[in-house]
Amino acid sequence: xxxxxxxxxxxxxxxxxxxxxxxxxxxxxxxxxxxxxxxxxxxxxxxxxxxxxxxxxxxxxxxxxxxxxxxxxxxxxxxxxxxxxxxxxxxxxxxxxxxxxxxxxxxxxxxxxxxxx
Length: 117
What we know:
- By secondary structure, the protein is mostly beta strands.
- It is 0% helix and 50% strand.
């Protein structure tokens, strides 16, 4: 059974930083892998993705402020968030798959990030 366990969410003030972690179990390879977020009343959107080789892609809203990374040996991905803004407030989800099609089959339970001014 595949599980994605997220941690690291919390409440910070504008300009603060947080690092999210996602550790997978029961999956052979995290491919694809990424972070998504969902604000109240809005759809879930991609924040950042990373290939097995470490190539990252970011949403325009977080480019230059967030950094995604992974540790293949630990089946883990991370999201370092800096210069946080109120509009970054959302539930953040770790997503992953184990296929060559780019399909996200597995999701974490979500972790709340709240940025206050």
